[in-house]
Design a protein that fits this description.
transmembrane helix
Amino acid sequence: MLENPISNSIIITTIAVVLAFSALAVFLIKKTKENK
């Protein structure tokens, strides 16, 4: 098994983007509920 730092960094970046997007979505949902 050869290590591939490029694919590893892509996976880490993808996970980070997904987590950031999820956190932003939750924040917007909570903010919208507070406004109602």
